Amino acid sequence: MFRRHSLFSLACTKGLLVASLPMMHAQRAQSSFDKHDAGSESTHDDLHDDLQSELAQVMQSTMAAATGVAASSSSLPTADVDGSSSSAAGGEAIHLTKLVRPPAKFDLLTHSFAYEWRTTARLARKVVGPMREWANEIKYRTGVHVEMDPTYPEKLAAGDYKLADDVEITVYLFGTDRGVVNAQKVMEAAIQQDPSYVRLGVFRRKPDNSDVEWLTLRRINRDHRPPDIPKISLKLPGKYTLLYENYKEAAIRTLWEETGITAPPVEVYPSGYLRSTDPLYFWRVPVRYFVAEVPFGVEVKGPQATKQSYMMGWDSRILRQSPDAIDREWARLANPETGCAWMSASLLDELQRPLRGFHYMATRYTPPPHSGLQEVVNLIGAGTATTQ
């Protein structure tokens, strides 16, 4: 809190600074013209940049003196002589280095400036995502294209890393200098908020007995699909968090995006948390699971956004002839118009066992005790795991 006389001093200081600017400009201009007459290659742009730089330094020093804050404590990114920049983010520093020439695999992106950030998978996956979810958000917000690669692939292949978090990663940024600075700020916010996948399992009670059914859909994973994700996945509703969005908000939002159902927040309960520790799957992000009950007659509208990313409008006669058990059950239970199906927990356990192991539903969707829903869903083999 400033004292009263501090505000007056600050106003006077600002006035002195503004009054001195014309004199600074005249002195700098005269100095530049003198250099030009002596054979210097200085240009008007150089003069403008020098003035902007000096003005920023004077302004920063003046404000620091008036407020009692040292100029060196500023958290703004600072450019070094070698073209690198750094900025602190909640105890984590992002250091960007400008590249003279990016790796050959990014030849198509060489029309932009290229920067790199050396880090580990613990942070890198938060700004890229397994299927480029957050890299796409950064590009949407700043226009900067983001890629990542293992820094030492030979060490990864040799099993030199004990945990997925420890895998050394190089993150590449392609864009304008201004765009990269903006992207750096978005990345700092992302690594502080710990972005995650979310799933919201919604179930309904059958009116004729005590059984419950869970709503499912099938997503088509076309682009940037990691090896451990099938081309067409069987899943319960849910996607991933966006920047400045908490986990429950993301679960409710993505439930509507994929099914057209809106769940009241007070009826949504956290049910599980899974994270990967295997270095071979360093791109995996944590998954947070939620559960909610919906009325039996709830209207399922199907995907409300990016409908081309979901399996819809299929020919059931073809699916019945598929060697895949998921296809055959999908032909029997799913609605081609909505792309969704109601399935029992036991059937989901059976269909997911080859890829996800035993107790698929109980591990992820067992409601917490305070919800009063454990006896309703009656999942077998209940237990919450922390690794996947």
Q: What's the CATH superfamily of the largest domain, by name?
A: Nucleoside Triphosphate Pyrophosphohydrolase
Q: Which CATH class of the largest domain applies here?
A: Alpha Beta
What is the number of E strands?
12
Main sheet strand line-up: 1-2-3-4-6-5
What general outline do the C-alpha atoms trace?
elongated
Q: Quickly count the domains.
A: 3
| Percentage of β-strand residues | 15-25%
CATH topology of the largest domain: Nucleoside Triphosphate Pyrophosphohydrolase
Average pLDDT confidence is 81
CATH architecture term of the largest domain? Alpha-Beta Complex
- Helicity level, as a percent range? 25-40%
Radius of gyration: 28 Å
Class computed from helices, strands and strand pairing: alpha+beta
Ends distance: 49 Å
Largest sheet: 6 strands, antiparallel
The number of helical segments is 12
Order of helices and strands: HHEEEEHHEHEHEEEHEEHHEHHH
- Uncertain runs are 1-52, 58-90
How would you explain this protein's 3D organization?
This protein is an alpha+beta fold. The chain has three domains: 4-61; 78-193, 2-Layer Sandwich (Ribosomal Protein S8, Chain: A, domain 1), CATH 3.30.1370; 197-377, Nucleoside Triphosphate Pyrophosphohydrolase, CATH 3.90.79.10. Helix content is 38%, strand content 20%. The chain has a six-stranded antiparallel sheet with strand order 1-2-3-4-6-5, covered by helices on one side. Strands 7, 8, 9, 10, 11 and 12 form a six-stranded mixed sheet that branches. Helix 4 crosses helix 6 (177-193). The two termini are 49 Å apart.
